[in-house]
Amino acid sequence: MNKADETFPKDFLWGGATAANQLEGAYLEDDKGLSTADVLPNGSLGEIDEDAGEECLYHEGIDFYHRYKEDIELFAEMGFDCLRVSIAWTRIFPKGNEESPNQAGLQFYDNLFDELLKYDIEPVVTLSHYEMPLHLVKEYGGWRNRKLVKFFERYAKVVFDRYKDKVKYWLTFNEINAIFHTPFNAGGLILEDGENKEEIKYQAAHHQFVASALAVKACHEIIPDAQIGSMSLAIPFYPYTCDPDDVLKAMKRERELFFFTDVQARGYYPSYMDRIWAEDDIDIEMKEEDEVILKEHTVDYVGFSYYMSCAVSTFPEDKEQVSGNIVGGVKNPYLETTDWSWQIDPKGLRYIANRLYDRYQKPLFIVENGLGAVDEIEEDGSINDDYRIDYLEAHIEQLGEAIADGVDLMGYTSWGPIDLVSASTGEMKKRYGFIYVDRDNSGEGTLERIKKKSFDWYKEVIASNGEKVIPKEK
After folding, report:
1. Which of 52, 265, 269, 421 has a beta carbon 3.0–4.6 Å from 360's, enabling a disulfide?
2. 305-317 pLDDT tens trace
3. Residue 357 sits in which domain range?
Protein backbone atom coordinates (compact mmCIF):
# COMPACT_ATOMS: atom_id res chain seq x y z
CA MET A 1 0.00 0.00 0.00
CA ASN A 2 1.52 3.34 -1.00
CA LYS A 3 1.29 6.59 0.91
CA ALA A 4 -1.58 7.90 -1.23
CA ASP A 5 -3.66 4.83 -0.40
CA GLU A 6 -2.94 5.42 3.25
CA THR A 7 -3.98 9.08 2.96
CA PHE A 8 -6.90 9.82 0.67
CA PRO A 9 -9.64 7.18 0.82
CA LYS A 10 -10.81 5.59 -2.40
CA ASP A 11 -14.21 7.27 -2.18
CA PHE A 12 -12.75 10.75 -1.56
CA LEU A 13 -14.68 13.39 -3.54
CA TRP A 14 -12.56 15.70 -5.71
CA GLY A 15 -14.11 18.64 -7.49
CA GLY A 16 -14.80 22.35 -7.53
CA ALA A 17 -17.18 24.82 -5.91
CA THR A 18 -19.34 27.60 -7.35
CA ALA A 19 -22.30 29.80 -6.42
CA ALA A 20 -25.33 30.55 -8.58
CA ASN A 21 -25.20 34.32 -8.17
CA GLN A 22 -21.51 34.51 -9.11
CA LEU A 23 -21.59 32.58 -12.37
CA GLU A 24 -25.08 31.87 -13.71
CA GLY A 25 -26.05 35.30 -15.02
CA ALA A 26 -29.49 35.46 -16.67
CA TYR A 27 -30.55 37.30 -13.54
CA LEU A 28 -34.14 37.94 -14.64
CA GLU A 29 -34.56 35.15 -17.19
CA ASP A 30 -37.32 32.53 -16.98
CA ASP A 31 -39.22 34.47 -14.30
CA LYS A 32 -36.36 34.58 -11.81
CA GLY A 33 -36.95 37.17 -9.08
CA LEU A 34 -34.60 39.86 -7.85
CA SER A 35 -32.18 38.59 -5.21
CA THR A 36 -30.07 40.36 -2.63
CA ALA A 37 -27.04 39.73 -4.86
CA ASP A 38 -28.71 41.52 -7.78
CA VAL A 39 -28.75 44.87 -5.97
CA LEU A 40 -25.08 45.07 -5.05
CA PRO A 41 -23.20 47.51 -7.30
CA ASN A 42 -20.23 45.74 -8.89
CA GLY A 43 -21.43 42.59 -7.17
CA SER A 44 -19.52 43.62 -4.07
CA LEU A 45 -20.28 43.60 -0.34
CA GLY A 46 -20.72 47.37 -0.43
CA GLU A 47 -23.75 49.64 -0.50
CA ILE A 48 -27.12 48.36 -1.66
CA ASP A 49 -28.49 49.81 -4.90
CA GLU A 50 -31.89 48.51 -5.98
CA ASP A 51 -31.35 50.12 -9.39
CA ALA A 52 -27.98 48.42 -9.97
CA GLY A 53 -27.67 47.92 -13.70
CA GLU A 54 -24.79 46.98 -15.97
CA GLU A 55 -22.30 47.85 -13.23
CA CYS A 56 -23.43 44.74 -11.33
CA LEU A 57 -21.28 41.94 -12.77
CA TYR A 58 -23.54 39.37 -11.13
CA HIS A 59 -26.24 40.13 -13.68
CA GLU A 60 -24.37 38.30 -16.43
CA GLY A 61 -21.83 36.41 -14.34
CA ILE A 62 -19.99 34.16 -16.80
CA ASP A 63 -23.26 33.16 -18.52
CA PHE A 64 -23.15 29.69 -16.99
CA TYR A 65 -26.94 29.61 -17.34
CA HIS A 66 -26.53 29.20 -21.10
CA ARG A 67 -23.03 27.65 -21.20
CA TYR A 68 -23.20 25.04 -18.42
CA LYS A 69 -22.88 22.11 -20.83
CA GLU A 70 -19.50 23.21 -22.20
CA ASP A 71 -18.27 24.06 -18.69
CA ILE A 72 -19.34 20.71 -17.25
CA GLU A 73 -17.58 18.98 -20.14
CA LEU A 74 -14.39 20.73 -19.05
CA PHE A 75 -14.94 19.71 -15.42
CA ALA A 76 -15.44 16.14 -16.59
CA GLU A 77 -12.19 16.34 -18.55
CA MET A 78 -10.43 17.19 -15.28
CA GLY A 79 -12.02 14.10 -13.75
CA PHE A 80 -14.30 15.76 -11.21
CA ASP A 81 -16.13 13.41 -8.84
CA CYS A 82 -18.41 16.24 -7.71
CA LEU A 83 -19.32 19.85 -8.35
CA ARG A 84 -20.60 22.12 -5.64
CA VAL A 85 -23.31 24.42 -6.96
CA SER A 86 -26.07 26.42 -5.33
CA ILE A 87 -29.70 26.73 -6.27
CA ALA A 88 -30.81 30.32 -6.69
CA TRP A 89 -33.76 30.53 -4.30
CA THR A 90 -35.19 33.26 -6.55
CA ARG A 91 -35.38 30.88 -9.51
CA ILE A 92 -37.62 28.53 -7.51
CA PHE A 93 -39.63 31.10 -5.53
CA PRO A 94 -39.05 34.52 -7.17
CA LYS A 95 -40.45 36.45 -4.19
CA GLY A 96 -39.84 33.75 -1.62
CA ASN A 97 -43.34 33.60 -0.18
CA GLU A 98 -45.31 32.08 -3.06
CA GLU A 99 -47.37 28.96 -2.54
CA SER A 100 -46.20 27.32 -5.78
CA PRO A 101 -42.68 27.16 -7.30
CA ASN A 102 -41.55 28.51 -10.64
CA GLN A 103 -41.43 25.54 -13.02
CA ALA A 104 -38.88 27.13 -15.35
CA GLY A 105 -36.43 27.47 -12.49
CA LEU A 106 -36.96 23.89 -11.39
CA GLN A 107 -36.40 22.69 -14.94
CA PHE A 108 -33.09 24.54 -15.24
CA TYR A 109 -31.64 22.66 -12.28
CA ASP A 110 -33.08 19.40 -13.57
CA ASN A 111 -31.12 20.01 -16.75
CA LEU A 112 -28.00 21.03 -14.85
CA PHE A 113 -28.02 17.98 -12.58
CA ASP A 114 -28.73 15.66 -15.51
CA GLU A 115 -25.71 17.06 -17.32
CA LEU A 116 -23.49 16.50 -14.28
CA LEU A 117 -24.74 12.95 -13.78
CA LYS A 118 -24.13 12.19 -17.44
CA TYR A 119 -20.43 12.47 -16.61
CA ASP A 120 -20.77 10.74 -13.21
CA ILE A 121 -20.25 14.03 -11.38
CA GLU A 122 -22.15 14.17 -8.10
CA PRO A 123 -23.95 17.49 -7.46
CA VAL A 124 -23.19 18.99 -4.04
CA VAL A 125 -25.97 21.52 -3.62
CA THR A 126 -26.16 24.55 -1.33
CA LEU A 127 -29.68 25.79 -0.59
CA SER A 128 -28.73 29.40 0.17
CA HIS A 129 -25.42 30.88 -0.96
CA TYR A 130 -25.37 34.65 -0.33
CA GLU A 131 -28.58 34.96 -2.30
CA MET A 132 -32.18 35.22 -1.17
CA PRO A 133 -35.32 36.86 -2.55
CA LEU A 134 -35.13 40.65 -2.19
CA HIS A 135 -38.87 40.68 -1.54
CA LEU A 136 -38.29 38.84 1.75
CA VAL A 137 -35.95 41.64 2.80
CA LYS A 138 -38.28 44.48 1.85
CA GLU A 139 -41.50 42.87 3.08
CA TYR A 140 -40.31 40.97 6.16
CA GLY A 141 -36.93 42.42 7.14
CA GLY A 142 -34.91 39.37 6.12
CA TRP A 143 -33.95 36.67 8.60
CA ARG A 144 -34.80 38.80 11.60
CA ASN A 145 -38.36 37.68 10.89
CA ARG A 146 -39.44 34.22 12.07
CA LYS A 147 -41.75 33.88 9.06
CA LEU A 148 -38.73 33.17 6.87
CA VAL A 149 -38.29 29.81 8.60
CA LYS A 150 -41.46 28.49 6.98
CA PHE A 151 -40.65 30.06 3.61
CA PHE A 152 -37.23 28.38 3.64
CA GLU A 153 -38.66 25.06 4.78
CA ARG A 154 -41.18 25.13 1.92
CA TYR A 155 -38.40 25.91 -0.57
CA ALA A 156 -36.19 23.13 0.82
CA LYS A 157 -38.97 20.54 0.66
CA VAL A 158 -39.77 21.46 -2.95
CA VAL A 159 -36.20 21.00 -4.15
CA PHE A 160 -35.64 17.86 -2.07
CA ASP A 161 -38.72 16.28 -3.57
CA ARG A 162 -37.85 17.41 -7.10
CA TYR A 163 -34.22 16.27 -7.06
CA LYS A 164 -34.37 13.33 -4.66
CA ASP A 165 -33.15 10.94 -7.34
CA LYS A 166 -30.34 13.23 -8.52
CA VAL A 167 -28.74 14.94 -5.51
CA LYS A 168 -27.32 13.05 -2.53
CA TYR A 169 -25.14 15.78 -0.98
CA TRP A 170 -26.66 18.98 0.39
CA LEU A 171 -25.61 22.04 2.40
CA THR A 172 -28.02 24.44 4.09
CA PHE A 173 -26.53 27.97 4.44
CA ASN A 174 -23.24 29.04 2.92
CA GLU A 175 -20.78 30.48 5.47
CA ILE A 176 -23.61 30.88 7.96
CA ASN A 177 -21.34 32.61 10.48
CA ALA A 178 -20.75 35.46 8.02
CA ILE A 179 -24.03 37.03 9.16
CA PHE A 180 -22.04 38.89 11.83
CA HIS A 181 -19.70 40.42 9.27
CA THR A 182 -21.84 40.86 6.15
CA PRO A 183 -25.42 40.84 7.48
CA PHE A 184 -27.10 41.82 4.22
CA ASN A 185 -25.43 39.13 2.12
CA ALA A 186 -25.76 36.37 4.68
CA GLY A 187 -29.06 37.32 6.29
CA GLY A 188 -30.86 39.94 4.26
CA LEU A 189 -30.50 42.33 7.20
CA ILE A 190 -30.65 46.10 6.83
CA LEU A 191 -29.66 47.46 10.23
CA GLU A 192 -30.79 50.91 11.32
CA ASP A 193 -29.19 53.35 13.75
CA GLY A 194 -30.58 52.97 17.24
CA GLU A 195 -31.25 49.24 16.91
CA ASN A 196 -29.47 46.64 18.99
CA LYS A 197 -27.62 45.39 15.92
CA GLU A 198 -25.88 42.49 17.61
CA GLU A 199 -29.16 41.22 19.04
CA ILE A 200 -30.78 41.35 15.60
CA LYS A 201 -27.91 39.36 14.10
CA TYR A 202 -28.18 36.70 16.80
CA GLN A 203 -31.96 36.57 16.35
CA ALA A 204 -31.54 36.13 12.59
CA ALA A 205 -28.92 33.45 13.19
CA HIS A 206 -31.33 31.61 15.47
CA HIS A 207 -33.99 31.64 12.78
CA GLN A 208 -31.44 30.24 10.32
CA PHE A 209 -30.47 27.52 12.80
CA VAL A 210 -34.11 26.44 13.10
CA ALA A 211 -34.61 26.62 9.33
CA SER A 212 -31.44 24.59 8.79
CA ALA A 213 -32.57 21.93 11.28
CA LEU A 214 -35.98 21.70 9.62
CA ALA A 215 -34.24 21.31 6.26
CA VAL A 216 -32.14 18.47 7.73
CA LYS A 217 -35.36 16.86 8.97
CA ALA A 218 -37.04 17.19 5.57
CA CYS A 219 -33.97 15.91 3.72
CA HIS A 220 -33.76 12.80 5.89
CA GLU A 221 -37.46 12.12 5.39
CA ILE A 222 -37.59 12.78 1.64
CA ILE A 223 -34.14 11.45 0.65
CA PRO A 224 -33.14 8.86 3.28
CA ASP A 225 -29.88 8.00 1.53
CA ALA A 226 -28.75 11.65 1.26
CA GLN A 227 -26.29 13.53 3.47
CA ILE A 228 -26.85 17.14 4.47
CA GLY A 229 -24.29 19.36 6.14
CA SER A 230 -23.60 22.78 7.59
CA MET A 231 -21.17 25.23 6.00
CA SER A 232 -19.09 27.81 7.84
CA LEU A 233 -16.32 30.25 7.11
CA ALA A 234 -13.30 28.79 8.91
CA ILE A 235 -10.41 31.05 9.90
CA PRO A 236 -7.91 29.93 12.52
CA PHE A 237 -7.06 32.78 14.90
CA TYR A 238 -3.58 32.53 16.40
CA PRO A 239 -2.52 34.52 19.47
CA TYR A 240 0.09 37.04 18.32
CA THR A 241 2.18 36.28 21.42
CA CYS A 242 2.07 33.86 24.34
CA ASP A 243 0.68 36.66 26.51
CA PRO A 244 -2.36 35.02 28.19
CA ASP A 245 -4.48 37.99 27.13
CA ASP A 246 -3.65 37.29 23.48
CA VAL A 247 -4.45 33.61 23.99
CA LEU A 248 -7.83 34.41 25.53
CA LYS A 249 -8.64 36.85 22.74
CA ALA A 250 -7.81 34.17 20.15
CA MET A 251 -10.11 31.77 22.01
CA LYS A 252 -12.92 34.33 21.87
CA ARG A 253 -12.45 34.85 18.13
CA GLU A 254 -12.35 31.10 17.56
CA ARG A 255 -15.71 30.76 19.28
CA GLU A 256 -17.22 33.02 16.60
CA LEU A 257 -16.88 29.96 14.35
CA PHE A 258 -17.58 27.26 16.92
CA PHE A 259 -20.83 28.90 18.03
CA PHE A 260 -22.41 28.17 14.65
CA THR A 261 -21.04 24.67 14.22
CA ASP A 262 -21.84 23.83 17.86
CA VAL A 263 -25.53 24.52 17.31
CA GLN A 264 -25.76 22.74 13.96
CA ALA A 265 -23.50 19.75 14.70
CA ARG A 266 -24.15 19.25 18.44
CA GLY A 267 -27.73 20.49 18.46
CA TYR A 268 -27.65 22.98 21.32
CA TYR A 269 -26.40 26.42 22.28
CA PRO A 270 -22.97 26.31 23.96
CA SER A 271 -22.75 27.48 27.56
CA TYR A 272 -20.22 30.21 26.76
CA MET A 273 -22.97 32.16 24.95
CA ASP A 274 -24.73 32.88 28.27
CA ARG A 275 -21.96 35.23 29.35
CA ILE A 276 -21.64 36.87 25.93
CA TRP A 277 -25.36 37.61 25.77
CA ALA A 278 -25.48 38.86 29.35
CA GLU A 279 -22.55 41.23 28.86
CA ASP A 280 -23.90 42.55 25.54
CA ASP A 281 -27.51 42.86 26.76
CA ILE A 282 -28.82 40.41 24.16
CA ASP A 283 -32.15 38.66 24.55
CA ILE A 284 -33.15 36.12 21.88
CA GLU A 285 -36.73 35.05 21.30
CA MET A 286 -37.07 31.28 20.97
CA LYS A 287 -40.10 29.05 20.74
CA GLU A 288 -40.47 26.12 23.12
CA GLU A 289 -40.09 23.58 20.32
CA ASP A 290 -36.85 25.10 19.00
CA GLU A 291 -34.66 23.26 21.48
CA VAL A 292 -36.09 19.91 20.39
CA ILE A 293 -35.84 20.77 16.69
CA LEU A 294 -32.17 21.71 17.00
CA LYS A 295 -31.31 18.67 19.11
CA GLU A 296 -33.07 16.07 16.97
CA HIS A 297 -31.96 17.31 13.54
CA THR A 298 -28.23 17.87 13.55
CA VAL A 299 -26.19 17.86 10.35
CA ASP A 300 -24.56 14.74 8.95
CA TYR A 301 -21.27 16.43 8.19
CA VAL A 302 -19.48 19.74 8.69
CA GLY A 303 -18.56 21.68 5.57
CA PHE A 304 -16.33 24.72 5.63
CA SER A 305 -14.38 27.18 3.53
CA TYR A 306 -10.71 27.79 4.19
CA TYR A 307 -8.51 30.41 2.56
CA MET A 308 -6.29 31.95 5.21
CA SER A 309 -5.57 32.47 8.92
CA CYS A 310 -5.12 35.57 11.06
CA ALA A 311 -3.33 36.54 14.24
CA VAL A 312 -5.03 38.44 17.05
CA SER A 313 -3.51 40.80 19.58
CA THR A 314 -4.68 42.62 22.67
CA PHE A 315 -3.02 45.70 21.17
CA PRO A 316 -3.64 45.48 17.42
CA GLU A 317 -3.45 49.20 16.69
CA ASP A 318 0.36 49.26 16.52
CA LYS A 319 0.62 46.16 14.28
CA GLU A 320 0.29 45.59 10.55
CA GLN A 321 -3.17 44.48 9.45
CA VAL A 322 -4.17 42.05 6.71
CA SER A 323 -7.38 41.41 4.81
CA GLY A 324 -9.17 38.10 4.46
CA ASN A 325 -12.30 36.21 3.50
CA ILE A 326 -14.72 38.80 4.94
CA VAL A 327 -12.68 38.84 8.17
CA GLY A 328 -9.15 40.20 8.58
CA GLY A 329 -6.74 40.58 11.47
CA VAL A 330 -3.17 41.15 12.56
CA LYS A 331 -0.45 40.07 10.14
CA ASN A 332 1.38 36.91 11.11
CA PRO A 333 5.10 37.61 10.51
CA TYR A 334 5.69 33.98 9.54
CA LEU A 335 3.31 34.00 6.58
CA GLU A 336 3.31 35.41 3.05
CA THR A 337 0.25 37.14 1.59
CA THR A 338 -1.63 37.11 -1.70
CA ASP A 339 -2.12 40.10 -4.01
CA TRP A 340 -5.25 40.85 -1.98
CA SER A 341 -3.41 40.69 1.36
CA TRP A 342 -4.80 37.29 2.40
CA GLN A 343 -2.26 35.26 4.38
CA ILE A 344 -1.16 31.97 2.85
CA ASP A 345 -1.21 29.30 5.55
CA PRO A 346 -1.53 25.69 4.32
CA LYS A 347 -0.83 24.26 7.77
CA GLY A 348 -3.74 26.30 9.08
CA LEU A 349 -6.02 24.02 7.05
CA ARG A 350 -4.65 20.96 8.84
CA TYR A 351 -4.99 22.76 12.16
CA ILE A 352 -8.61 23.86 11.73
CA ALA A 353 -9.62 20.46 10.31
CA ASN A 354 -8.23 18.78 13.43
CA ARG A 355 -9.94 21.30 15.70
CA LEU A 356 -13.31 20.75 14.05
CA TYR A 357 -13.05 16.96 13.95
CA ASP A 358 -11.86 16.71 17.54
CA ARG A 359 -14.87 18.80 18.57
CA TYR A 360 -17.63 17.10 16.57
CA GLN A 361 -16.44 13.66 15.43
CA LYS A 362 -18.42 14.10 12.23
CA PRO A 363 -17.07 13.87 8.69
CA LEU A 364 -15.64 17.12 7.30
CA PHE A 365 -15.95 18.44 3.76
CA ILE A 366 -13.63 21.22 2.58
CA VAL A 367 -16.04 22.89 0.17
CA GLU A 368 -14.00 26.02 -0.63
CA ASN A 369 -10.26 26.62 -0.88
CA GLY A 370 -8.44 28.55 -3.55
CA LEU A 371 -6.18 31.40 -4.59
CA GLY A 372 -7.50 34.65 -6.02
CA ALA A 373 -4.86 36.13 -8.32
CA VAL A 374 -4.31 38.20 -11.46
CA ASP A 375 -3.78 35.88 -14.43
CA GLU A 376 -2.07 37.02 -17.63
CA ILE A 377 -2.43 35.47 -21.08
CA GLU A 378 0.97 34.95 -22.70
CA GLU A 379 1.68 35.71 -26.35
CA ASP A 380 1.28 32.04 -27.22
CA GLY A 381 -2.14 31.97 -25.53
CA SER A 382 -1.01 30.04 -22.45
CA ILE A 383 -1.76 31.01 -18.84
CA ASN A 384 1.03 29.89 -16.54
CA ASP A 385 -0.49 30.06 -13.07
CA ASP A 386 2.26 28.25 -11.18
CA TYR A 387 1.45 30.38 -8.10
CA ARG A 388 -2.00 28.77 -7.99
CA ILE A 389 -0.53 25.30 -8.35
CA ASP A 390 1.90 26.01 -5.51
CA TYR A 391 -0.91 27.28 -3.26
CA LEU A 392 -3.27 24.38 -3.91
CA GLU A 393 -0.55 21.74 -3.77
CA ALA A 394 0.57 22.93 -0.35
CA HIS A 395 -3.00 22.92 0.97
CA ILE A 396 -3.88 19.49 -0.44
CA GLU A 397 -0.70 18.10 1.06
CA GLN A 398 -1.92 19.33 4.46
CA LEU A 399 -5.23 17.61 3.87
CA GLY A 400 -3.26 14.39 3.60
CA GLU A 401 -1.61 15.22 6.91
CA ALA A 402 -5.02 15.84 8.49
CA ILE A 403 -6.24 12.44 7.31
CA ALA A 404 -3.09 10.87 8.73
CA ASP A 405 -3.95 12.66 12.00
CA GLY A 406 -7.21 10.72 12.04
CA VAL A 407 -9.55 13.34 10.60
CA ASP A 408 -12.45 11.91 8.58
CA LEU A 409 -12.51 13.95 5.35
CA MET A 410 -15.21 13.37 2.73
CA GLY A 411 -13.85 15.52 -0.04
CA TYR A 412 -12.33 18.71 -1.38
CA THR A 413 -13.85 21.21 -3.81
CA SER A 414 -11.59 24.05 -4.87
CA TRP A 415 -13.01 27.54 -5.23
CA GLY A 416 -13.84 28.21 -8.01
CA PRO A 417 -12.82 25.79 -10.76
CA ILE A 418 -13.72 28.35 -13.42
CA ASP A 419 -13.26 32.11 -13.18
CA LEU A 420 -16.35 33.83 -11.77
CA VAL A 421 -17.29 37.11 -10.13
CA SER A 422 -15.49 37.50 -6.81
CA ALA A 423 -17.91 37.88 -3.90
CA SER A 424 -15.47 39.79 -1.70
CA THR A 425 -14.50 42.44 -4.26
CA GLY A 426 -17.05 42.17 -7.08
CA GLU A 427 -14.28 41.76 -9.64
CA MET A 428 -13.45 39.47 -12.53
CA LYS A 429 -9.81 40.49 -12.18
CA LYS A 430 -9.50 38.40 -9.02
CA ARG A 431 -9.46 34.95 -10.59
CA TYR A 432 -9.55 31.53 -8.95
CA GLY A 433 -10.20 29.10 -11.76
CA PHE A 434 -8.41 26.35 -13.62
CA ILE A 435 -10.34 27.75 -16.58
CA TYR A 436 -9.96 31.37 -17.68
CA VAL A 437 -13.07 33.29 -18.71
CA ASP A 438 -12.61 36.24 -21.04
CA ARG A 439 -14.48 38.92 -19.13
CA ASP A 440 -13.04 41.97 -17.36
CA ASN A 441 -14.10 44.23 -14.51
CA SER A 442 -16.06 46.46 -16.87
CA GLY A 443 -18.04 43.50 -18.17
CA GLU A 444 -16.29 43.42 -21.52
CA GLY A 445 -15.04 40.24 -23.17
CA THR A 446 -16.01 37.30 -25.32
CA LEU A 447 -16.66 34.89 -22.41
CA GLU A 448 -14.33 32.43 -24.14
CA ARG A 449 -13.08 29.62 -21.91
CA ILE A 450 -9.29 28.95 -21.87
CA LYS A 451 -7.51 26.21 -19.91
CA LYS A 452 -4.79 27.39 -17.55
CA LYS A 453 -1.67 25.42 -16.65
CA SER A 454 -3.37 24.41 -13.39
CA PHE A 455 -6.08 22.60 -15.40
CA ASP A 456 -3.82 19.69 -16.29
CA TRP A 457 -2.18 19.78 -12.87
CA TYR A 458 -5.50 19.32 -11.05
CA LYS A 459 -6.47 16.63 -13.53
CA GLU A 460 -3.36 14.69 -12.46
CA VAL A 461 -4.09 15.26 -8.77
CA ILE A 462 -7.56 13.77 -9.16
CA ALA A 463 -6.38 10.89 -11.35
CA SER A 464 -3.77 9.98 -8.74
CA ASN A 465 -6.25 10.45 -5.83
CA GLY A 466 -3.86 12.96 -4.33
CA GLU A 467 -0.69 10.91 -4.74
CA LYS A 468 0.77 13.64 -6.96
CA VAL A 469 1.03 16.06 -4.02
CA ILE A 470 2.00 13.61 -1.27
CA PRO A 471 5.76 13.66 -0.51
CA LYS A 472 7.28 10.23 -1.04
CA GLU A 473 9.57 10.70 1.96
CA LYS A 474 9.49 12.92 5.05
Report:
1. 265
2. 999 999 999 988 8
3. 3-469
pLDDT digits (tens, 9 = 90+) for 216-228: 999 999 999 999 9
pLDDT for res 224: 98
Global confidence as pTM: 0.95
Number of H helices, E strands in the chain: 15, 16
Please, which residues bridge with residue 409 across strands? 364
Q: Express the helix, strand and coil content of the chain in percent, nearest 5 each.
A: 45, 15, 40
| 474 in a structural domain | no
| CA atoms of 412 and 434, how far apart (whole Å) | 15
Q: How far apart are CA 197 and CA 203, in angstroms?
A: 10
Measured over the CA atoms of residue 311, residue 316, residue 318 and residue 321, the dihedral's sign is: positive
**Mean pLDDT value across residues 172-187:** 95
Q: Is 38 part of a structural domain of the chain? A: yes
The catalytic residue among 368, 397, 401, 427 is 368
Question: Cα–Cα distance between 131 and 383 in angstroms, integer?
Answer: 32
- 451 pairs with which residues across the strands? 435
Q: What is the dihedral of CA 301, 305, 309, 311, to 10 degrees?
A: -70
CATH number where 116 lies: 3.20.20.80
Rounded to the nearest integer, the mean pLDDT of the chain is 93
Residue 199 is a catalytic residue: no
Alpha-carbon distance of 51 to 30, in angstroms, equals: 20
